[in-house]
Specification:
- By secondary structure, this protein is an alpha+beta fold.
- It has a single domain (about 1-194), classed as Alpha-Beta Plaits, CATH 3.30.70.
- It is about 25% helix and about 35% strand.
- The chain is built from five helices and ten strands.
- It has helices at about 15-25, 65-70, 75-85, 120-135, 185-194; strands spanning about 1-5, 10, 35-45, 55, 60, 90-100, 110-115, 140-150, 155-160, 170-180.
- An eight-stranded antiparallel barrel has the order 1-5-3-10-7-9-8-6, surrounded by four helices.
- β8 and β9 form a beta hairpin.
- The longest helix is centred in the C-terminal third of the chain and has 16 residues, at about 120-135.
Length: about 190
């Protein structure tokens, strides 16, 4: 499993209805994309638990070939054409867990990123982070939870989808506009085997 996100920060007076329309008309195009485990079309609006307007899709790839095909293909070309080429953050997947609300529509996403402390014993720290993901996935309202690691910057990212607007989680909150999940079932086994 691989996690990926790009954040497109938009002007303070940007009409976020444009992003909603974009997702409503194009979001379904990845509903059957090969290798895609899950794509959450996310946005934040200035003044609503955010200081910025932002479009920030988050991806969990079941297969690296799918990720490469997307980044080098027409789908990402559309993003580049409309917004410029964003920096794409990338993490290696460590865990993916379905939650008690796994059959529900995701409404909110929470992303928490934090640095791995210098000198921390990695196996113990990562085992603890995986266990935290498992615990979080058992909380009422959780659709699914994922954990990934960026070994270049030694950063962990916890990503959780929720079926309601007021999740009990700490981190950056996003509104979920749509979820494409053609190979979501492959994420659980993929994350545990590397």
């Amino acid at each position: 499993m691989h996690a990926m996100q790009y954040e497109i920060t938009l002007p303070a007076d940007y009409d976020m209805g444009i992003i909603r329309t974009r997702v409503a008309t194009k979001g379904h195009l990845l509903d059957a994309f090969p290798g895609l485990g899950l794509k959450a079309y996310l946005m934040r609006e200035r003044g609503e638990q955010s200081v910025v307007n932002q479009y920030a899709p988050f991806y969990l790839w079941a297969a690296q070939d799918g990720m490469n095909a997307f980044l080098l293909g027409a789908g990402f070309d559309g993003v580049v054409r409309d917004f410029g080429r964003p920096e794409v953050q990338h993490w290696t997947g460590l865990a993916f867990e379905e939650g008690p609300a796994s059959a529900c529509v995701a409404r909110t996403a929470v992303r928490r990123r934090h640095r791995v402390p210098e000198g921390a014993p990695l196996p113990a720290l990562l085992a603890e982070a995986v266990e935290e993901t498992r615990r979080l996935s058992g909380v009422a309202g959780v659709v699914c939870a994922a954990l990934a690691l960026d070994p270049r910057h030694w950063e962990l990212v916890h990503f959780t989808l929720w079926d309601h607007d007021t999740p009990r989680a700490v981190g950056d909150r996003f509104q979920v506009l749509h979820v494409s999940q053609p190979e979501r079932a492959a994420l659980t086994s993929n994350a545990r085997t590397g």
